[in-house]
Each structure stands twice: as C-alpha cells, then as structure tokens.
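Thread: "does anyone have the structure for this chain?"

Original post by V.I.:
We have the sequence but no experimental structure in hand. Need at least a predicted one for the grant figures.
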Amino acid sequence: MKAKSTNLRGSQTGAAQTGAAKGKKKEKRMPYAERRAQILERATELFAEYGLTAQTRALAAECGISQRLLYRFFPTKEDLLREVYDTAILGPFKAVWFAELSDRSRPMHDRLNGFYNDYLDTVLGRQWLRLFLYSSLAEADMAPNYISSIITKLTETIVTETARERGIALSVEPEAVHEIGWTIHGALSHYGIRRHIYRASLITPQAQVVDMHVRAFLSGFDAMVAQFE
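Reply from O.Q.:
Generated one for you, tokens below.
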C-alpha cells in the first residue's frame, strides 16, 4: 500500500495557500468542542487517504483555519495522532463484544458469527483499514498498540471460550493461544482488506464468508491445540 505523500506535498501546499486565503474571508468562530471534533474528523480522513506523512498545513487548510490555530488544539502532530488513534482506531471497538463472546448460554458458533459480522460492519471499513495499514507501514504505534490492547485479549477470549465449550483443558503457552486465535481473526481481517482495499470478494455474502471461517476454525480447533501441547 503506497502512500500518496509524494504527489501530495505540492497539492498540500497549494491547498494550504488556497485554504488560508479562503479562511481569511470565511473563517468563523466555532465552539471549542465543535472545532476540535472537526479537526479530528478531517485529520482521520487526511491520514487515511494519504498516510501519516500528510502535513498539518493541509489539515488546517481543510478545516479553513490557520496552522497556528490548529496547534492551539493539538500542540504537536504526535498529540494529534494519539487522539486520532483513540477516536478512530480504538473508538469503534465495542467493549460489550467481550461479554457477548463469553456468554456461555449461546453456542460458540453463534457467538463467533455474531461478533465477526458486527466487527466487520462496525470496525473494518475502508477508512479504518487504510489508517491502520498506513500506520503499520510508517512503523507508528497505532497498530502495535491496538493489537496489544485489543486483539491479544480478543484472541485469548475466543480460544478460552472455544476450549471450554469443547471440554478441552488448555495447557499451552499464551503465545500459542494467540496464534490459534489469529487463525480466525487474521482470516476475517484479511477478508475485510480484500473487500475494502483490493475491491475483491464482493460477490459472496459477508455472512456466508464469516460462517465458513467460523466452521473451519471450530472444526480444526482440537488439532490446533494438540499441535502445541
């Protein structure tokens, strides 16, 4: 995935100049919270489209404000990126999903189907995926932090709950638990990438694809655990 920053610099400069000129005529005062939300929304769009190398000058122009005013809200680009991570990467994840995956009144097949269909619809959209992939290419902290804070717990929950339903006493290392969980999470995350980044896998209904991967994960689960024991 190649960032568009090479061709963006010139357009950013022109956009910034044009935006600054317009800003002098059209800039209006907005409530602090409203302006801050506007900056975050535009920043997420900009970084998702052009990568993390996109300049704050272009962002200020997009918001119709001066770069100096932008820095009153976010003193550094790092501050802005941290906030984008919290709102755009972490924000869509629903804490209730952990409780639903741990609801033993429902079969694991149903729990996994429900979670991954909702996860694909809520989280793995085009903008989220582009932002996540660009942050990975830039070796920024967004992707590693998301994996350590969310996906690690998610894979542990999925594997632990599946083992319990199948009557398997897990005696494998945590790293092995995560790898087993990644077999389904990685497959369905890449399905999201194929749909929204590659523009492929658009014909078969999502629910059918999810169910296929859920069934494959559950049918091969015992063998995967045995391999690490």
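V.I.: this helps a lot. Residues 9-13, 15-25 have pLDDT under 50 and may be disordered.
O.Q.: and The radius of gyration is 21 Å.
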